[in-house]
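Subgroup meeting minutes
Present: P.N., E.W., G.H.
Scribe: E.W.

1. P.N. recapped why we're keeping a running log of single-chain structure predictions: easier to compare across weeks, and new members can see raw inputs and outputs side by side.
2. G.H. added today's entry (233 aa).
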Amino acid sequence: MIRDAYSVALDPLLPWWLIAGLVVVFLTLVGYALLRRARGALLRLLAGAALTAILLNPSLVEEQRAYQKDIAVVLVDRSPSQALGTRSQETNDALVEVRRQLALFPDLEVRVFEGGGGPDAAEKGTELMGVLQRGLADVPLRRLAGVITISDGQVHAYDATSGRETYGGGRYLWDSAKGADLGMNGDALVLDFNYAYHPSCVQDSIWSCPLAPQENWLPVPIDAGERMPESRR
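Output recorded in log:
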């Protein structure tokens, strides 16, 4: 959609400093005439304003501006962990539904970025944030409406340090954003617990945090990742 816009452009006939000086002198003379109630002071003021306008040399500019839609990004995780079980189909179904709902907004441009797969995924892990940065390289921040991530997301684990050196409800691994996913080993997903971090409720009681599911309870201590400060142990 093309919209017309109008603005006033100035192309002064004299340098700005000279015009400003002339205006100051003129206003001083007119002010003096008004104080003395001299005849024709108002006419002099109007004439001076007209002369200033001529020196400023204004012109009306018509611009045609193309209307640009806001951009919504759908970031799809295609890392090896997404192939476990029915996750791949669930991801595809979620993408279809997200596209359907976003299509209800006529002023929204939808861009889908997929990443995390490839032959070197086992070594480098998922790098969705890199995919996002590269995809948004040409998008001004003011046009970005938001980012929707479709991913298997967090791994919530509880180990023998929970409740002692770490939070009692367990810690999180966000394998898509922080590279904790080291790929697949047969049917198993390899995770790097150096990226383990505490949930938000550890920092502020306004948040509520679920407990780690029992299948993610580890009987051994994981001496890696974020720890509780000594004062809170």
